[in-house]
Structures are given as C-alpha cells and as structure tokens.
Amino acid sequence: MIRFENVGLRYGVGPEILRDVSFHVAPKSFQFLTGPSGAGKTTLIRLFSLSLKPSRGLISVFGKDSATLEKNELPALRRRIGVVFQDFRLLDHLTTFENVALPLRVLGKDESSYRADVVELLRWVGLGDRMHASPPVLSGGEKQRAAIARALISRPEILLADEPTGNVDPPLARRLMRLFTELNKLGTSVVIATHDINLMNQFNARRLVLEEGRLTVYD
Amino acid sequence: MTDAERAHKIQMAAYRRQSRLAPRRASQIVPEGTVSGNALTIVIAIMSFLACLTLGAVTLVRDASRDWQVDILREITIQVRPIEGIDTDAEAAKAAAIAETYRGVASAEVLDNAENARLLEPWLGAGLDMDELPIPRLIVIRLSNPASVDLADLSNRLRAEVKGAGLDDHRLWTERLQTMANVTVVIGASILSLVFVATVLNVVFATRGAMASNRDVVSVLYFVGAEDGYIAREFQRHFLLLGLKGGLTGAAGASILFALLSLVIAPSMAPAETDQVSALFGRFAVGPIGYFGALGIAFLIAVMTAVTSRLTVYRYLADTD
User: Fold this and answer.
1) B124 in a domain, yes or no?
2) Contact flag A72-B321 (C-beta cutoff 8 Å)
3) What global pTM score does this model have?
4) Is the minimum CB–CB distance between B27 and chain A shorter than 8 Å?
5) Which of A121, A131, B125, B276 fits a disulfide with A97 by CB distance 3.0 to 4.6 angstroms?
6) Tell me: the pLDDT tens digits for A192-206?
7) Is residue B125 part of a domain?
C-alpha cells in the first residue's frame, strides 16, 4: 500500500533528518510509529501524506512512485489517505459539521448527498450534539474527534494520526484508540504516531520506532 | 426498537425537519469579515476613490480646454484705429459690412461708445467722454462655423479697403491656450498613470497580505484533497467580491463628490470664491466619461484583486508541493 525504500530526507543543506528508512504498510494493518520527541515522526507523516518529497530513496504510494507523480494526480491520492494532525487544523469559521464534511464539499458534492453520512459519523465519534458548534467552543477532545471524523469521512484506505491522544485524558485516549481499532477492523490501515509507551503497551500491534533518523520495525 | 434507537430516530427526524424549514446557508470556505479582509477593502476603497478623482480631474480639464478653444474661436475682433481726417465710424461700418459677406460669419457688431467705455472702465474709471479720446473702434464678429471662414482673405481685404483696420483672430492666444491645455491634460494623464500603478501595487500587496492570513485555509483544503483549481476558484471568488465592494465604494464616493461639487459650483449660485473656478472650468461638471470611468476603475480593481489572489494561491500550492 505504502512502501518506503532507503528514504532519506534533509531540509536544504542541513543534516539528514531521516536516514535509510525502509518499511511497508500493508492493507488492513495497524501500527504505531514511535520514537522520542524530535525523532522525525511528523516529518515521516508529511512524507506519507505526499506534502514532502524525499531527498533520496523511493516512496511508493498505492503502487505509484511519488517522485514521478504528476501534480494533478496528487489530490486524488491524497483523498485515499486520511490525516489527523497533531494541531487538528480545523477551520474556526466553519461548524463542526462543515469541517467534517469539507473533504466531500471540495469534491463539489451537494450537501444533501452527504448530510446523513456526516451526521452518522459525527454520532459515531460522539459529536452528534455538537455538529453546529464551531471549533473555538469545542474542548480539546472534541476537536480531536472532529479532526478524526474529517479524516474518515471520505473513507480513506489508510489513516495517519499524529499524536491523536496527546491532548486528551487517559479515558478519552482509550476511547479514541477503540475508535481506531474498530476502524481497522472495518478494513482501513492505521498508522498512529505517538510517544506514549503506556498506550502502545495496551495493544499488540506492530511498532515502527524512529531514533535519530533511523527506523527499526518490530513486528 | 430500543430506547436508544427510538431517540436517535426522533433526533434525526428533528434534524431533517430543521434543515428543511430553515435551510442554513453553508459558510464560505474562505472566512468573511476578517481583520485583514476588512483592511484590504478599505485600502481598495481609498485607492479606487483616488484613481476616480484623478480621472475626473483629467476629464474636467480636457473638457474645459476644449470649451475654451471653441469659445475663443467663435469670436474674432476687427480693430479700426482712428486716423486724422478719416471718419472712424464710417470705416468701422464698412469693415463690418465686408465681414458679413463671408461664409461662416453669423454677425458683425460695431461696439458703440457706451460699450467701449464699459470695456475701459476698469482701467480709466467711469464717466469717460469717448469723443475726446482716440479710442479704436472694435467690431465683434461672431462665427457660426469657424472652420469655413477664410480669415487670411478677410484680413487682406480689410487692410486694403478699410483705413486703419486690423483683424485680431486670437490665433496666438488660442495656440498658447491649446498648448497649455494639452500640457495640463498630459500632466493629468501622467498623474493618472502613477495613481494607477500605485493602486495596482497597493492592491497586489494588500491582497497578498490578506492571503497570508488564509494560509491555514489553503493548507487544510490541500490536505483534504481539494484540486488546485477548486482552491484558486474559492479564493478568487472571495477576493473578487471583496475587491468589488471596495472598488465600488471608492467609485461611489468619488461620483458623489463630483455631483456635489457640480451643484456647489453651479454658475447661477456661484459665490465670489467660486468665480475663479467658474472662470476656468465654466460649469464644474464631470462628464459621462468621468462617471463611467469610475465604474470601470472599480471593476478593474476588483478583477486585479481576484487575479492576484488566484496567482498567490497557485504560488503557495507550488511551494507546498
């Protein structure tokens, strides 16, 4: 599904942030991406989501080499990848409903065609009664769930979540994790970037450990 | 059906009913009413106002200079100098009669003593006895069609047939006036071009400034898989409306000012202070070119704003990729 082969990345003429990173994310798989702060997790997520190009090596996304992708092929590929950002990136002037519906709206779909799906998803993540609230009045956990719902609404084949439990208390973190495992059971590959060891210990999942720019895979 | 399912069904029905009864307008993807957006509208309004004022002033001077030339060309003067032993009045009447035979001449009127005295009053005071002074006789010739009058031939005939006669066709004066008016229009047009360049640069930079505050919106749209064209269209539409709002406000302000000034400086109600303006511009009225030009400027500025936002979005997206 997504394959990295000897990927290296440096910004400008600086040192390499990622070195010889090789791994494969299989369909319907579940894995944690971990490592100390500043190890390059967020950079790796950006490479995943096609917003960065590697300095060397090969990244293959859904069978396509990212180096040879045409610019107009990117939006369609990006829609197959759901990303939950560490800072949520919700648009404050839109309601929760509109934020979650955004990936469908940008496809030019009419609101009546997706309203029921969005409402259902908002209920599934526990935001059924907050759909008309705007992000500034949502709590950290609610924003997190809205961001997750937005990443899921277009039924992506892979979900990348950057520290999705970083801003929530342990019970809510467990609830969000249940949400991700449930999603995985429904067929979506999940990659969760976190440095919370306790959280990872609760799940028997593959771990991709980044340390000083190098990646080790523990199956 | 469980209680939870029943509650869910009731809530969904309520939601559908609410949506049907009060169709809520979807929020614009590009936020409206932001500080940077409002600042941009104000900048655009001010620049549009200044550009419209300059355009109005240039058309005003151009129209006025055309009126001056037409007015001056419509009147020429024959002067008959008094010569010892010659009846000046008879010579003046002869000159008037010759002038009237020419095509394009509407009338030839010999000014009488009283009119001459009135002309000289500012210099020599009232109560002049014109018979004691060797004042030349003036014949005012009004032309119905200045282009068709053969002034050179008239001048030659007058010199040959009327003693002491000379034709003053104001040509020198007209040429000077024309040069002055042309220079004024060229200066006005140069100022207008400078104001346009300043407007373009101001709008471009203000739009880029406003776009900078929308980078988050662009990046979110990008990540949720929006096509570049879709993002550019959303911003272009937002900034076109914003530009139209600012541009039309400025143009409307300038048009209202033109209308007010033309009312205040109307000749019939002109107080002493406006005499100078009336003397220069006649009726202070900006023509249709001024008003339509203002509308044109407003639309031009709006289009420029939209195009700048579109280019900025594409540049940002190119950097992101």
Assistant:
1) yes
2) no
3) 0.70
4) yes
5) A131
6) 998 888 888 888 889
7) yes
